[in-house]
């Protein structure tokens, strides 16, 4: 199978931690260039912008965007207008309408658009979905609590408008919940805690529903000590616990299972399949839930936050 020549855009934390290693190990892709205002990858041809990268390396067939969501729409448009396949880090865009527009434009252009949700690729998510498929769901508790200073040091964009605040990690939980629960999720109410000197929430509580089940989500960016990326589901057959971001599962009467983290290799294998089959994958359910939470939310101003 011919390898696909790809360019990587936005050389920051996730590009370095996950995308570069996943591409280096991939049988499907050759990473031949990057575009980033400051970031560079050793040994890879680096450019300051997408336009400069595509002009210098016209053989690039696909582009993967790892920039923050605010501003990504214009970058995505540059790629689609140039007729290249496009992969988007989560969340796919700053707004739902931007992502919907990108899907339509990609379809018209006849190129692949892959809006990724890396947490759905965590090792035990498929097992959770399969086990829940035949159960009655009674209640769901989502606890997604992490230390912003540890995981996102100095990333001021996250708490700015369009940065999603605590929904930046929280949307990962929503991407898993929308994958594993048999019935669609809807938002009932939400409370957003916004630091006095910032625009986006640093904590959030969201009440949702899935079928007849109440779904409670508790997102917190100020968690020190033990971090939690956990989803508990009460069912007619007992309690399912999906923990550690979806990489561990505990089912009633079975020994706990922990898989290996292959999220990004799986995403790039899927991108290759989509490109080769001429398909796209754009599921906007997680970002729609975030938008709905913002629509109905009660906002509270809380203590100013500095990194
Ligand atoms: P980051 O460390 O801030 O890196 C993003 C890079 O994008 C920056 O280094 C910057 O490189 C470039 N950029 C372009 N426009 C920018 C702007 N207006 N403001 C700031 N940077 C800009 O962020 P990240 O943690 O890698 O996150 C990027 C995306 O990946 C987000 O959508 C995030 O949700 C997602 N993600 C992050 C993680 C994680 O653990 N960090 C995990 C999974 C997914 P230049 O200055 O060189 O242009």
Automatic annotation (TrEMBL):
Highest taxon, organism lineage: Bacteria
Protein name: Gfo/Idh/MocA family oxidoreductase
Listed transmembrane segments: none
InterPro entries in the record: Gfo/Idh/MocA-like_OxRdtase_N, Gfo/Idh/MocA_oxidrdct_glycsds, NAD(P)-bd_dom_sf
SUPFAM superfamilies (UniProt xref): NAD(P)-binding Rossmann-fold domains
Listed Gene3D superfamilies: Dihydrodipicolinate Reductase, domain 2, NAD(P)-binding Rossmann-like Domain
Domain spans labelled Gfo/Idh/MocA-like oxidoreductase N-terminal: 4-114
């Amino acid at each position: 199978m011919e390898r696909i020549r790809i360019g990587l855009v936005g050389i920051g934390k996730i590009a370095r931690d996950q995308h570069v290693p996943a591409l280096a190990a991939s049988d499907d892709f050759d990473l031949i260039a990057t575009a980033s205002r400051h970031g560079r990858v050793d040994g890879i041809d680096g450019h300051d912008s997408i336009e400069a990268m595509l002009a210098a390396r016209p053989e690039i067939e696909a582009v993967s965007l790892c920039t923050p969501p605010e501003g990504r729409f214009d970058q995505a448009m540059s790629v689609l207008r140039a007729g290249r396949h496009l992969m988007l880090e989560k969340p796919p865009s700053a707004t739902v309408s931007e992502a919907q527009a990108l899907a339509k434009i990609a379809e018209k252009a006849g190129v692949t658009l892959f809006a990724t949700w890396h947490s759905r690729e965590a090792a035990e998510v498929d097992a959770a979905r399969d086990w829940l498929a035949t159960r009655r769901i009674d209640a769901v508790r989502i606890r997604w609590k992490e230390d912003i200073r540890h995981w996102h040091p100095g990333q001021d964009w996250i708490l700015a408008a369009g940065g999603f605040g605590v929904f930046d990690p929280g949307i990962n939980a929503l991407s898993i919940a929308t994958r594993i629960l048999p019935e669609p999720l809807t938002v009932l109410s939400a409370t957003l805690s916004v630091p006095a000197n910032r625009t986006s929430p640093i904590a959030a509580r969201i009440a949702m529903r899935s079928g007849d089940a109440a779904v409670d989500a508790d997102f917190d960016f100020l968690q020190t000590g033990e971090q939690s990326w956990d989803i508990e589901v009460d069912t007619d057959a007992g309690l399912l616990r999906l923990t550690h971001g979806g990489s561990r599962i505990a089912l009633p009467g079975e020994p706990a299972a922990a898989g290996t983290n292959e999220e990004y290799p799986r995403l790039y294998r899927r991108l290759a399949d989509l490109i080769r089959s001429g398909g796209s994958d754009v599921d906007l359910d997680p970002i729609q839930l975030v938008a709905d939470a913002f629509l109905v939310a009660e906002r509270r101003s809380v203590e100013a936050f500095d990194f």
